[in-house]
């Protein structure tokens, strides 16, 4: 099993047309999967039709978002979940979203390297992707990577996010089940409220359950949920589970809770509602990408607007509407 923890270049071997990779992706061949994800990352126009086909052929995988503040132990938890799912015969896909420089676009791999051994033993496919300065941490390519793994037969597909605060909220529209991880003794309950991630959780997990502070964090989270901290639109109160990713203690309970939530989504009809929300996010996200790309390719129009705004000759809102073609430029 090949574990990919970096952005592999599609130019290392003779270039294979993306249309020819689709069959190998559907067969679960790791090299084809890695190449297709690389082309999604790089935005190859040639790959658009193949990615669209893979999207149409997907839609079966349970997409799980793992989020929370830095230091909570998200990567360690993902490793533990890989083991748990592999023991049950599941083929797990992981997209690990890393913070990156908006200038270089380089990812900070960090814990992802330590995830590789677990992933290889469990037959998982792990791909680390840079955010490339994208607000919310989830790039258009991240969701296309999920499509590729979905079509290749990976189920579940886990998205592990960067854990940087308010931007984490975007994960809720890219996953069927969102697990928010808190660590005891770090004041994560208060941070979560400030960051706006408390209410996006379908499941709350508290790491390092062997520490005495874990019980206090679990109690605090349950108290806040009792005061109305549940996720809006959900008809199911989120459980709060203490776990230890290092020892594996109660990881099985977390896996069962994730499965129970998936069953609830399918039985209640909420899955269709979430699919609509995911579709909305992707359409608007792609529209923003195309809008930005248009002016990157023809920067002179944007520069005129920038100068006018900087010189106070034009209001930024008027300039934006002009770029959209909604108003004529004065």
UniProtKB/TrEMBL annotation:
An example Pfam family from this entry, by short name, is: MeaB
Q: Is rRNA processing found in the keyword set?
A: no
| Similarity field | Belongs to the SIMIBI class G3E GTPase family. ArgK/MeaB subfamily.
Q: Does the keyword Transmembrane apply?
A: no
Query: Which GO MF terms are attached to this record?
Result: GTP binding; GTPase activity; kinase activity
Q: Which organism is it from?
A: Shinella granuli
> Which CDD domains does the entry mention?
MMAA-like (cd03114)
Describe the location of the AAA+ ATPase domain by residue ranges.
60-204
Q: Which domain of life is it from?
A: Bacteria
Q: Which SMART domains match?
A: AAA
Q: Which PANTHER family match?
A: LAO_AO TRANSPORT SYSTEM ATPASE, LYSINE/ARGININE/ORNITHINE TRANSPORT SYSTEM KINASE
> Which protein are we looking at?
LAO/AO transport system kinase
Q: Do you know which SUPFAM superfamilies this protein is assigned to?
A: P-loop containing nucleoside triphosphate hydrolases
InterPro entries linked: AAA+_ATPase, GTPase/Isobutyryl-CoA_mutase, GTPase_ArgK, P-loop_NTPase
Which keywords does this chain's UniProt record carry?
A: Chaperone, GTP-binding, Hydrolase, Kinase, Nucleotide-binding, Transferase
